Amino acid sequence: xxxxxxxxxxxxxxxxxxxxxxxxxxxNELALFxxxxxxxxxxxxxxxxxxxxxxxxxxxxxxxxxxxxxxxDEKYPATAVAFNDCTIIKLSKExxxxxxxxxxxxxxxxxxxxxxxxHTKANTSKEIINQKPEYRVLAFLNTFKKKSxxxxxxxxxxxxxxxxxxxxxxxxxxxxxFTKMNACNKVEIIHHKIYx
Amino acid sequence: xxxxxxxxxxxxxxxxxxxxxxxxxxxNELALFxxxxxxxxxxxxxxxxxxxxxxxxxxxxxxxxxxxxxxxDEKYPATAVAFNDCTIIKLSKExxxxxxxxxxxxxxxxxxxxxxxxHTKANTSKEIINQKPEYRVLAFLNTFKKKSxxxxxxxxxxxxxxxxxxxxxxxxxxxxxFTKMNACNKVEIIHHKIYx
DNA sequence: CGGTTCCTTGAGGATGATCAACGAGGGTGG
DNA sequence: CCACCCTCGTTGATCATCCTCAAGGAACCG
Lengths: 196, 196
Description:
The structure is a homodimer.
Chain A: H1 5-10, E1 14-18, E2 23-25, E3 33-39, E4 42-47, E5 53-59, E6 64-65, H2 68-72, E7 79-82, E8 86-92, H3 93-102, H4 104-129, H5 133-148, H6 160-167, H7 171-183, E9 188-190, E10 193-195
Antiparallel strand pairs in A: 1-8, 2-7, 3-6, 3-8, 4-5, 4-7, 9-10
The first copy, chain A, binds a DNA duplex through helix 7.
Protein backbone atom coordinates (compact mmCIF):
# COMPACT_ATOMS: atom_id res chain seq x y z
CA UNK A 1 0.00 0.00 0.00
CA UNK A 2 1.52 3.27 -1.03
CA UNK A 3 -0.37 5.98 0.83
CA UNK A 4 -2.86 5.37 3.61
CA UNK A 5 -6.35 5.53 2.15
CA UNK A 6 -7.80 7.57 5.00
CA UNK A 7 -5.02 10.07 4.65
CA UNK A 8 -5.76 10.40 0.94
CA UNK A 9 -9.44 10.98 1.60
CA UNK A 10 -8.68 13.53 4.29
CA UNK A 11 -6.75 15.47 1.65
CA UNK A 12 -9.72 15.50 -0.66
CA UNK A 13 -9.15 12.39 -2.76
CA UNK A 14 -12.13 10.76 -4.39
CA UNK A 15 -12.76 7.13 -5.28
CA UNK A 16 -13.96 6.37 -8.75
CA UNK A 17 -15.12 3.14 -10.35
CA UNK A 18 -13.98 2.06 -13.81
CA UNK A 19 -15.28 -0.76 -15.98
CA UNK A 20 -12.91 -3.21 -17.64
CA UNK A 21 -11.24 -1.57 -20.64
CA UNK A 22 -12.25 1.92 -19.60
CA UNK A 23 -9.50 4.46 -20.23
CA UNK A 24 -8.08 6.29 -17.21
CA UNK A 25 -5.74 8.52 -19.16
CA UNK A 26 -4.17 8.59 -22.59
CA UNK A 27 -0.61 8.68 -23.82
CA ASN A 28 0.58 12.27 -24.25
CA GLU A 29 -1.98 13.73 -21.89
CA LEU A 30 -0.83 16.04 -19.14
CA ALA A 31 -0.56 14.37 -15.74
CA LEU A 32 -3.04 15.99 -13.39
CA PHE A 33 -3.80 13.31 -10.80
CA UNK A 34 -2.23 10.83 -8.49
CA UNK A 35 -3.85 7.40 -8.96
CA UNK A 36 -3.95 4.59 -6.42
CA UNK A 37 -5.80 1.32 -6.82
CA UNK A 38 -8.29 0.29 -4.13
CA UNK A 39 -9.51 -2.72 -6.02
CA UNK A 40 -8.91 -4.29 -9.39
CA UNK A 41 -5.98 -3.82 -11.73
CA UNK A 42 -4.76 -1.37 -14.32
CA UNK A 43 -2.65 -1.81 -17.43
CA UNK A 44 -0.37 0.81 -18.92
CA UNK A 45 0.58 0.30 -22.54
CA UNK A 46 1.67 1.82 -25.82
CA UNK A 47 0.17 0.97 -29.14
CA UNK A 48 1.69 1.64 -32.52
CA UNK A 49 0.16 2.50 -35.87
CA UNK A 50 -0.76 -1.11 -36.72
CA UNK A 51 -2.51 -1.61 -33.42
CA UNK A 52 0.24 -3.71 -31.93
CA UNK A 53 0.41 -3.11 -28.20
CA UNK A 54 3.20 -3.19 -25.67
CA UNK A 55 2.35 -3.44 -21.99
CA UNK A 56 4.59 -1.22 -19.90
CA UNK A 57 3.20 -2.33 -16.59
CA UNK A 58 0.34 -4.00 -14.78
CA UNK A 59 -0.70 -2.59 -11.43
CA UNK A 60 -2.80 -4.25 -8.76
CA UNK A 61 -4.43 -3.77 -5.41
CA UNK A 62 -2.80 -1.00 -3.42
CA UNK A 63 -0.38 0.00 -6.17
CA UNK A 64 -0.08 3.53 -7.41
CA UNK A 65 0.78 4.21 -11.02
CA UNK A 66 1.48 7.02 -13.44
CA UNK A 67 3.41 9.03 -10.86
CA UNK A 68 6.66 9.88 -12.69
CA UNK A 69 5.10 12.59 -14.88
CA UNK A 70 3.76 14.29 -11.76
CA UNK A 71 7.30 14.94 -10.56
CA UNK A 72 8.76 16.21 -13.79
CA ASP A 73 5.91 17.99 -15.54
CA GLU A 74 5.87 15.59 -18.44
CA LYS A 75 3.14 14.00 -20.51
CA TYR A 76 2.11 10.41 -19.91
CA PRO A 77 4.35 8.07 -21.91
CA ALA A 78 1.59 5.45 -22.14
CA THR A 79 -2.15 4.92 -21.91
CA ALA A 80 -3.80 3.45 -18.81
CA VAL A 81 -6.92 1.30 -18.94
CA ALA A 82 -8.78 -0.79 -16.40
CA PHE A 83 -7.62 -4.36 -16.81
CA ASN A 84 -10.50 -5.46 -14.60
CA ASP A 85 -13.40 -3.56 -13.16
CA CYS A 86 -11.80 -1.44 -10.50
CA THR A 87 -12.02 1.26 -7.90
CA ILE A 88 -9.38 3.95 -8.07
CA ILE A 89 -8.51 6.78 -5.73
CA LYS A 90 -7.69 10.04 -7.46
CA LEU A 91 -5.99 13.02 -5.87
CA SER A 92 -4.94 16.23 -7.58
CA LYS A 93 -1.27 16.61 -8.43
CA GLU A 94 -0.86 19.63 -6.12
CA UNK A 95 -2.34 17.88 -3.10
CA UNK A 96 -0.23 14.82 -3.80
CA UNK A 97 2.95 16.83 -3.90
CA UNK A 98 1.86 18.59 -0.72
CA UNK A 99 1.49 15.23 1.02
CA UNK A 100 5.03 14.31 0.03
CA UNK A 101 6.31 17.60 1.47
CA UNK A 102 4.36 17.06 4.63
CA UNK A 103 5.36 13.45 5.24
CA UNK A 104 9.04 12.76 4.62
CA UNK A 105 8.54 9.06 5.22
CA UNK A 106 6.07 8.88 2.38
CA UNK A 107 8.45 10.77 0.14
CA UNK A 108 11.14 8.30 0.99
CA UNK A 109 8.90 5.38 0.19
CA UNK A 110 8.24 6.88 -3.22
CA UNK A 111 11.94 7.24 -3.80
CA UNK A 112 12.28 3.53 -3.12
CA UNK A 113 9.32 2.75 -5.32
CA UNK A 114 10.80 4.70 -8.22
CA UNK A 115 14.11 2.91 -7.75
CA UNK A 116 12.28 -0.40 -7.83
CA UNK A 117 10.52 0.57 -11.04
CA UNK A 118 13.77 1.52 -12.73
CA HIS A 119 15.24 -1.79 -11.76
CA THR A 120 12.27 -3.64 -13.21
CA LYS A 121 12.34 -1.64 -16.43
CA ALA A 122 16.06 -2.17 -16.84
CA ASN A 123 15.52 -5.90 -16.55
CA THR A 124 12.66 -5.84 -19.01
CA SER A 125 14.72 -3.99 -21.61
CA LYS A 126 17.52 -6.46 -21.10
CA GLU A 127 15.26 -9.43 -21.81
CA ILE A 128 13.43 -7.87 -24.70
CA ILE A 129 16.57 -6.96 -26.57
CA ASN A 130 17.62 -10.57 -26.34
CA GLN A 131 15.28 -11.28 -29.14
CA LYS A 132 14.76 -15.03 -28.96
CA PRO A 133 11.02 -15.42 -28.31
CA GLU A 134 11.40 -18.27 -25.85
CA TYR A 135 13.80 -16.15 -23.84
CA ARG A 136 11.38 -13.29 -23.66
CA VAL A 137 8.51 -15.51 -22.63
CA LEU A 138 10.60 -17.21 -19.97
CA ALA A 139 11.65 -13.85 -18.61
CA PHE A 140 8.03 -12.87 -18.38
CA LEU A 141 7.08 -16.11 -16.65
CA ASN A 142 9.92 -15.80 -14.18
CA THR A 143 8.98 -12.24 -13.33
CA PHE A 144 5.40 -13.28 -12.75
CA LYS A 145 6.37 -16.27 -10.67
CA LYS A 146 8.75 -14.26 -8.56
CA LYS A 147 6.05 -11.71 -7.86
CA SER A 148 3.59 -14.45 -6.97
CA UNK A 149 6.03 -15.72 -4.36
CA UNK A 150 5.01 -19.31 -5.00
CA UNK A 151 7.56 -22.07 -5.55
CA UNK A 152 5.09 -24.68 -6.81
CA UNK A 153 3.80 -24.74 -10.35
CA UNK A 154 1.45 -21.80 -10.74
CA UNK A 155 -1.33 -21.08 -13.19
CA UNK A 156 -0.44 -18.20 -15.48
CA UNK A 157 -3.57 -16.08 -15.43
CA UNK A 158 -3.07 -14.38 -18.76
CA UNK A 159 -4.28 -15.04 -22.27
CA UNK A 160 -1.74 -15.68 -25.04
CA UNK A 161 -2.58 -12.28 -26.45
CA UNK A 162 -1.83 -10.60 -23.13
CA UNK A 163 1.49 -12.40 -22.92
CA UNK A 164 2.21 -11.29 -26.47
CA UNK A 165 1.60 -7.70 -25.41
CA UNK A 166 3.91 -8.09 -22.43
CA UNK A 167 6.71 -9.52 -24.51
CA UNK A 168 6.29 -7.52 -27.71
CA UNK A 169 5.63 -10.67 -29.72
CA UNK A 170 2.66 -11.79 -31.78
CA UNK A 171 -0.02 -14.18 -30.53
CA UNK A 172 0.87 -16.93 -32.96
CA UNK A 173 4.50 -16.73 -31.93
CA UNK A 174 3.60 -16.96 -28.27
CA UNK A 175 1.40 -19.99 -28.95
CA UNK A 176 4.17 -21.71 -30.88
CA UNK A 177 6.66 -21.01 -28.11
CA PHE A 178 4.32 -22.50 -25.54
CA THR A 179 3.63 -25.66 -27.51
CA LYS A 180 7.36 -26.12 -27.90
CA MET A 181 8.00 -25.44 -24.22
CA ASN A 182 5.26 -27.87 -23.34
CA ALA A 183 6.91 -30.55 -25.47
CA CYS A 184 10.17 -30.28 -23.54
CA ASN A 185 8.44 -29.92 -20.18
CA LYS A 186 9.42 -26.34 -19.52
CA VAL A 187 5.76 -25.56 -18.91
CA GLU A 188 2.68 -27.69 -18.46
CA ILE A 189 -0.45 -27.04 -20.47
CA ILE A 190 -3.72 -28.52 -19.28
CA HIS A 191 -6.96 -27.63 -21.01
CA HIS A 192 -5.19 -24.70 -22.64
CA LYS A 193 -4.22 -23.37 -19.24
CA ILE A 194 -0.53 -22.69 -18.72
CA TYR A 195 1.26 -23.83 -15.59
CA UNK A 196 4.81 -22.82 -14.77
CA UNK B 1 25.06 18.22 -10.96
CA UNK B 2 23.49 15.87 -8.47
CA UNK B 3 25.27 16.42 -5.17
CA UNK B 4 27.69 19.24 -4.43
CA UNK B 5 31.21 17.93 -4.83
CA UNK B 6 32.56 19.59 -1.69
CA UNK B 7 29.73 18.12 0.31
CA UNK B 8 30.57 14.68 -1.03
CA UNK B 9 34.23 15.06 -0.10
CA UNK B 10 33.33 16.33 3.35
CA UNK B 11 31.44 13.08 3.89
CA UNK B 12 34.46 11.04 2.95
CA UNK B 13 34.00 10.54 -0.77
CA UNK B 14 37.06 9.85 -2.88
CA UNK B 15 37.80 10.67 -6.50
CA UNK B 16 39.11 7.89 -8.69
CA UNK B 17 40.38 7.90 -12.24
CA UNK B 18 39.36 5.27 -14.78
CA UNK B 19 40.77 4.60 -18.23
CA UNK B 20 38.50 4.14 -21.24
CA UNK B 21 36.86 0.69 -21.13
CA UNK B 22 37.80 0.10 -17.52
CA UNK B 23 35.01 -1.63 -15.58
CA UNK B 24 33.47 0.24 -12.64
CA UNK B 25 31.13 -2.51 -11.58
CA UNK B 26 29.67 -5.65 -13.08
CA UNK B 27 26.16 -6.86 -13.66
CA ASN B 28 24.88 -8.86 -10.65
CA GLU B 29 27.35 -7.34 -8.24
CA LEU B 30 26.08 -5.92 -4.97
CA ALA B 31 25.75 -2.14 -4.99
CA LEU B 32 28.12 -0.70 -2.41
CA PHE B 33 28.88 2.82 -3.65
CA UNK B 34 27.29 5.97 -4.91
CA UNK B 35 28.99 7.08 -8.14
CA UNK B 36 29.07 10.61 -9.54
CA UNK B 37 31.01 11.72 -12.61
CA UNK B 38 33.43 14.62 -12.26
CA UNK B 39 34.76 14.27 -15.76
CA UNK B 40 34.30 11.92 -18.66
CA UNK B 41 31.42 9.58 -19.38
CA UNK B 42 30.22 6.16 -18.37
CA UNK B 43 28.22 3.53 -20.20
CA UNK B 44 25.93 1.01 -18.56
CA UNK B 45 25.09 -2.03 -20.64
CA UNK B 46 24.06 -5.66 -20.76
CA UNK B 47 25.66 -8.25 -22.94
CA UNK B 48 24.23 -11.60 -23.88
CA UNK B 49 25.82 -14.96 -24.53
CA UNK B 50 26.82 -14.13 -28.12
CA UNK B 51 28.52 -10.93 -27.06
CA UNK B 52 25.78 -8.70 -28.36
CA UNK B 53 25.49 -5.63 -26.18
CA UNK B 54 22.63 -3.37 -25.23
CA UNK B 55 23.38 0.05 -23.81
CA UNK B 56 21.04 0.92 -20.97
CA UNK B 57 22.36 4.41 -20.45
CA UNK B 58 25.20 6.83 -21.08
CA UNK B 59 26.11 9.23 -18.30
CA UNK B 60 28.16 12.40 -18.54
CA UNK B 61 29.68 15.22 -16.59
CA UNK B 62 27.95 15.75 -13.27
CA UNK B 63 25.59 12.80 -13.65
CA UNK B 64 25.26 10.15 -11.04
CA UNK B 65 24.48 6.58 -12.04
CA UNK B 66 23.79 3.14 -10.62
CA UNK B 67 21.75 4.55 -7.74
CA UNK B 68 18.56 2.49 -7.88
CA UNK B 69 20.11 -0.65 -6.37
CA UNK B 70 21.33 1.42 -3.42
CA UNK B 71 17.75 2.13 -2.40
CA UNK B 72 16.35 -1.35 -2.72
CA ASP B 73 19.22 -3.67 -1.83
CA GLU B 74 19.40 -5.20 -5.26
CA LYS B 75 22.19 -6.30 -7.53
CA TYR B 76 23.28 -4.16 -10.45
CA PRO B 77 21.15 -4.95 -13.50
CA ALA B 78 23.96 -3.97 -15.87
CA THR B 79 27.72 -3.46 -16.14
CA ALA B 80 29.30 0.00 -16.02
CA VAL B 81 32.46 0.88 -17.94
CA ALA B 82 34.30 4.11 -18.62
CA PHE B 83 33.19 5.28 -22.06
CA ASN B 84 36.07 7.81 -21.97
CA ASP B 85 38.87 8.32 -19.53
CA CYS B 86 37.13 9.74 -16.52
CA THR B 87 37.24 10.88 -12.93
CA ILE B 88 34.54 9.49 -10.70
CA ILE B 89 33.57 10.34 -7.14
CA LYS B 90 32.74 7.33 -5.00
CA LEU B 91 30.93 7.41 -1.67
CA SER B 92 29.87 4.44 0.41
CA LYS B 93 26.23 3.45 0.28
CA GLU B 94 25.68 4.18 3.98
CA UNK B 95 27.12 7.67 3.81
CA UNK B 96 25.09 8.37 0.68
CA UNK B 97 21.88 7.33 2.37
CA UNK B 98 22.86 9.45 5.37
CA UNK B 99 23.23 12.48 3.15
CA UNK B 100 19.75 11.94 1.79
CA UNK B 101 18.38 11.76 5.32
CA UNK B 102 20.25 14.87 6.29
CA UNK B 103 19.29 16.99 3.30
CA UNK B 104 15.64 16.68 2.31
CA UNK B 105 16.19 18.87 -0.72
CA UNK B 106 18.73 16.43 -2.07
CA UNK B 107 16.41 13.55 -1.43
CA UNK B 108 13.72 15.38 -3.34
CA UNK B 109 16.03 15.99 -6.26
CA UNK B 110 16.77 12.27 -6.41
CA UNK B 111 13.08 11.52 -6.45
CA UNK B 112 12.77 13.77 -9.48
CA UNK B 113 15.82 12.20 -11.07
CA UNK B 114 14.39 8.70 -10.65
CA UNK B 115 11.09 9.87 -12.12
CA UNK B 116 12.99 11.28 -15.08
CA UNK B 117 14.81 8.01 -15.58
CA UNK B 118 11.61 6.01 -15.57
CA HIS B 119 10.18 8.34 -18.15
CA THR B 120 13.22 7.90 -20.36
CA LYS B 121 13.19 4.15 -20.00
CA ALA B 122 9.49 3.94 -20.76
CA ASN B 123 10.10 5.87 -23.95
CA THR B 124 13.03 3.68 -24.90
CA SER B 125 10.99 0.51 -24.46
CA LYS B 126 8.23 2.01 -26.53
CA GLU B 127 10.60 2.70 -29.43
CA ILE B 128 12.44 -0.57 -29.24
CA ILE B 129 9.35 -2.68 -29.38
CA ASN B 130 8.37 -0.90 -32.55
CA GLN B 131 10.81 -3.03 -34.36
CA LYS B 132 11.38 -1.22 -37.65
CA PRO B 133 15.09 -0.43 -37.58
CA GLU B 134 14.73 3.04 -39.06
CA TYR B 135 12.22 3.86 -36.36
CA ARG B 136 14.60 2.80 -33.64
CA VAL B 137 17.50 4.72 -35.09
CA LEU B 138 15.39 7.85 -35.51
CA ALA B 139 14.22 7.57 -31.92
CA PHE B 140 17.84 7.37 -30.84
CA LEU B 141 18.82 10.37 -32.97
CA ASN B 142 15.90 12.42 -31.68
CA THR B 143 16.75 11.62 -28.08
CA PHE B 144 20.34 12.65 -28.65
CA LYS B 145 19.40 15.82 -30.45
CA LYS B 146 16.90 16.82 -27.79
CA LYS B 147 19.55 16.34 -25.12
CA SER B 148 22.07 18.37 -27.11
CA UNK B 149 19.59 21.26 -27.17
CA UNK B 150 20.72 22.28 -30.64
CA UNK B 151 18.25 22.96 -33.44
CA UNK B 152 20.81 23.02 -36.27
CA UNK B 153 22.17 19.87 -37.84
CA UNK B 154 24.45 18.23 -35.32
CA UNK B 155 27.26 15.75 -35.66
CA UNK B 156 26.34 12.41 -34.11
CA UNK B 157 29.44 11.57 -32.09
CA UNK B 158 28.96 7.81 -32.05
CA UNK B 159 30.24 4.96 -34.16
CA UNK B 160 27.79 2.73 -36.04
CA UNK B 161 28.59 -0.01 -33.57
CA UNK B 162 27.75 2.21 -30.64
CA UNK B 163 24.45 3.17 -32.22
CA UNK B 164 23.78 -0.52 -32.83
CA UNK B 165 24.30 -1.13 -29.13
CA UNK B 166 21.94 1.68 -28.22
CA UNK B 167 19.20 0.41 -30.48
CA UNK B 168 19.65 -3.32 -30.10
CA UNK B 169 20.44 -3.75 -33.80
CA UNK B 170 23.49 -5.08 -35.64
CA UNK B 171 26.16 -2.87 -37.14
CA UNK B 172 25.37 -3.82 -40.70
CA UNK B 173 21.71 -3.06 -40.18
CA UNK B 174 22.55 0.34 -38.74
CA UNK B 175 24.81 1.10 -41.69
CA UNK B 176 22.13 0.11 -44.17
CA UNK B 177 19.56 2.23 -42.40
CA PHE B 178 21.88 5.22 -42.54
CA THR B 179 22.69 4.87 -46.22
CA LYS B 180 18.97 4.68 -46.91
CA MET B 181 18.24 7.69 -44.71
CA ASN B 182 21.02 9.56 -46.42
CA ALA B 183 19.48 8.82 -49.81
CA CYS B 184 16.18 10.41 -48.79
CA ASN B 185 17.83 13.29 -46.95
CA LYS B 186 16.76 12.29 -43.48
CA VAL B 187 20.40 12.52 -42.41
CA GLU B 188 23.51 13.89 -44.02
CA ILE B 189 26.67 11.82 -44.24
CA ILE B 190 29.95 13.57 -44.94
CA HIS B 191 33.22 11.64 -44.78
CA HIS B 192 31.38 8.86 -42.95
CA LYS B 193 30.30 11.34 -40.28
CA ILE B 194 26.59 11.47 -39.57
CA TYR B 195 24.79 14.80 -39.25
CA UNK B 196 21.20 15.02 -38.10
C1' DC C 1 53.97 2.85 -43.91
C1' DG C 2 51.94 -0.88 -40.80
C1' DG C 3 48.39 -1.63 -37.70
C1' DT C 4 43.94 -0.54 -35.63
C1' DT C 5 39.50 0.54 -35.72
C1' DC C 6 35.64 1.56 -38.25
C1' DC C 7 32.81 1.38 -42.33
C1' DT C 8 30.70 -1.00 -46.32
C1' DT C 9 28.83 -4.45 -49.41
C1' DG C 10 26.92 -8.84 -50.95
C1' DA C 11 24.97 -13.37 -50.61
C1' DG C 12 22.44 -16.55 -48.00
C1' DG C 13 19.75 -18.26 -44.36
C1' DA C 14 16.77 -18.24 -40.27
C1' DT C 15 12.85 -16.76 -38.15
C1' DG C 16 9.22 -14.04 -36.62
C1' DA C 17 5.28 -11.58 -38.74
C1' DT C 18 1.34 -11.88 -41.56
C1' DC C 19 -2.74 -13.79 -43.48
C1' DA C 20 -6.37 -16.95 -43.53
C1' DA C 21 -9.03 -20.41 -41.72
C1' DC C 22 -10.78 -23.26 -38.32
C1' DG C 23 -11.47 -25.34 -33.54
C1' DA C 24 -12.74 -25.03 -28.62
C1' DG C 25 -14.92 -23.25 -24.74
C1' DG C 26 -18.15 -20.44 -22.17
C1' DG C 27 -22.04 -17.69 -21.67
C1' DT C 28 -26.70 -16.12 -23.03
C1' DG C 29 -31.26 -16.21 -24.51
C1' DG C 30 -34.90 -18.64 -26.73
C1' DC D 1 -31.49 -28.21 -23.92
C1' DC D 2 -30.09 -26.21 -27.96
C1' DA D 3 -28.50 -22.52 -31.03
C1' DC D 4 -25.84 -18.73 -31.32
C1' DC D 5 -22.16 -15.64 -30.44
C1' DC D 6 -17.86 -14.12 -28.81
C1' DT D 7 -13.47 -14.66 -27.25
C1' DC D 8 -9.53 -17.33 -27.23
C1' DG D 9 -6.52 -20.86 -29.02
C1' DT D 10 -4.33 -23.33 -32.96
C1' DT D 11 -2.31 -24.49 -37.42
C1' DG D 12 -0.19 -24.02 -41.97
C1' DA D 13 1.68 -21.43 -45.82
C1' DT D 14 4.00 -17.56 -47.35
C1' DC D 15 6.62 -13.38 -46.92
C1' DA D 16 9.66 -9.78 -45.44
C1' DT D 17 13.44 -8.64 -43.07
C1' DC D 18 17.06 -8.66 -40.07
C1' DC D 19 21.02 -11.43 -38.83
C1' DT D 20 25.10 -13.94 -40.13
C1' DC D 21 29.25 -14.64 -42.34
C1' DA D 22 32.88 -13.25 -45.18
C1' DA D 23 35.58 -10.06 -47.45
C1' DG D 24 37.43 -5.87 -48.57
C1' DG D 25 37.90 -0.62 -48.29
C1' DA D 26 38.66 3.84 -45.74
C1' DA D 27 40.35 6.70 -42.19
C1' DC D 28 43.39 7.54 -38.58
C1' DC D 29 47.60 7.33 -35.73
C1' DG D 30 51.96 5.93 -34.15
